[in-house]
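=== RUN LOG ===
request id: a7f3
mode: sequence -> structure
chains: 1
length: 183
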Amino acid sequence: MNIKDFTPTKETISLHGLGFIQLLLPNNQRLHVWHPDLPRRNCYEHSAIHNHRFGFESRVLKGKQCNVRVEVELAKEGTHQVISHNGPRSPKGGRISYPVAECNIYRGPIEEYHPGDTYWMSAYDYHHTPCNGIVITLMQKLDEGQVHSNSLCVKGVDFHYDFDRFQLPPETLYEYVIDAFRS
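=== RESULT ===
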């Protein structure tokens, strides 16, 4: 495959492997909609911990957003693999990714946020959002770094490298968004 065959993911609406829809808005904002019927990476339960190359503020509009902050310690023999998302975009919309290190993790308490609540994450801090049911948030990207993001996957579990962000057409994704607001 040639590098010119890769496409950027700048669609107005897209599916994310962590089980939510992302709707791009002006001013570095994103509407995120979690819905229990959306597909996720097939290894989601073992690979939901991730970081972002940007800091962000997230306000809950609907539902209960859970957030768990995670401390990471690189290790020669760890419990998790660090999966780098440093490659170009694949034809399925995700970044070409690969394991780069091992680590151990230390989970913080579950933070719960309700409609009107806001929480913040700094760039490169690890977390996961174990949402149940329908959750809608408005995320504002803040400072942005130059280094790529990572996911953590339990050692011994195959990471879902080829999750298809385009498996549902935009019309179907918009139907999920409308359903989430109406529910």
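=== NOTES ===
The mean pLDDT is 91.
The first strand starts at residue 13 and ends at 16.
=== END ===
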